[in-house]
């Protein structure tokens, strides 16, 4: 039954192309590519005037190179009924088209847009780290506008402070954003 419906669908698409003329149906497809060849295939697709999407995760604090969200996979926007379709499938480094239940299915545009939105770099606020011994105010959970003394910055965007509470000085480690 699936083959019959697929046959009707391809027949309808072929007739529609002939009736309408140059009907372009650009869709996003996911391709499996050779390891560490994603950037090269992206450049090849750019030469063919095709759009690609390679989800990359960048860490704000690390100086290391950005890492691929899906290593070995590349999203390519192409019309499956155009000559470019065959060219993409035969690019050096492209292994296969990722299929759903054995059928060629495009990736939904909402998924691509959602990935792009989530991976877009957020505007980072530059934090002024106080000097050791400087008087600060703490805004952290139940501690609202409590006077404290900044001791030192710690790892993982945290810092150590001295707070006068319960009749004595206590040392706390809090997120650096809690220090005003």
TrEMBL record:
Is ATP-binding set as a keyword in this record?
Answer: no
Q: Which domain of life is it from?
A: Bacteria
Tell me yes or no: is Transcription among this UniProt entry's keywords.
yes
Residue intervals of the NusG-like N-terminal domain: 27-108
Offer one example of a GO biological process linked to this entry.
Answer: DNA-templated transcription elongation
Q: State the InterPro entries in the record.
A: NGN-like_dom, NGN_dom_sf
* Keywords annotated in UniProt: Transcription
Spell out the protein name for this chain.
NusG-like N-terminal domain-containing protein
The scientific name of the source species is Ferrimonas aestuarii
């Amino acid at each position: 039954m699936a083959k019959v419906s697929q046959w009707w669908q391809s027949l309808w698409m072929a007739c529609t192309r002939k009736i309408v003329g140059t009907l372009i149906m650009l869709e996003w497809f996911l391709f499996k590519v050779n390891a560490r060849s994603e950037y090269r295939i992206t450049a090849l697709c750019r030469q063919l005037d095709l759009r690609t999407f390679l989800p990359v995760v960048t860490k704000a604090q690390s100086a290391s190179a950005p890492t691929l969200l899906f290593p070995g996979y590349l999203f390519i926007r192409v019309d499956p009924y155009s000559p470019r379709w065959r060219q993409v499938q035969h690019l050096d480094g492209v292994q296969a088209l990722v299929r759903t239940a054995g059928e060629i299915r495009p990736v939904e545009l909402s998924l691509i847009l959602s990935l792009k939105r989530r991976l877009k770099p957020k505007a980072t606020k530059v934090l002024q780290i106080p000097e050791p011994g400087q008087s600060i105010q703490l805004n952290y959970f139940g501690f609202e506008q409590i006077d404290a003394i900044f001791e030192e910055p710690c790892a993982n965007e945290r810092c150590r402070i001295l707070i006068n509470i319960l009749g004595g000085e206590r040392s706390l480690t809090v997120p650096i954003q809690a220090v005003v």
